[in-house]
Amino acid sequence: MLPIRFDHTHAMTPAVGEHGLSESELMALTEPSVRALESVQARRSKDLRWLDLPYRDAVRKAILDYAASVRGRFENVCVLGIGGSALGNTALHTALDDPFHDLFPPKGKPRLFVLDNIDPELITPFLERVDPTRTVFNVISKSGTTAETMSQFLILRAELVRRLGEKAHRDHLVITTDEAKGILRTIVGREGYRSFGVPDGVGGRFSVLSEVGLVSSALLGIDVEALHAGAAAMDQRCRTPRLVENPALLHAALQFLLHTRRNLPMAVTFAYSHRLRNVADWYAQLLAESLGKKHSRSGAVVHRGPTPIRAVGVTDQHSQVQLYAEGPFDKWFTILAVEEPEKDVPIPLAYADLEAVAYLGGRTLKELFHAEREGTRVALTDAGRPCAEIALPRVDAHTVGQLLFLLELSVAVMGEHYDVDAFDQPGVEAGKIAAYALMGRKGYEARRAEIQGAVGAGRRRI
Ligand code: PA5
Question: Known catalytic residue: 289?
Answer without folding.
Answer: yes
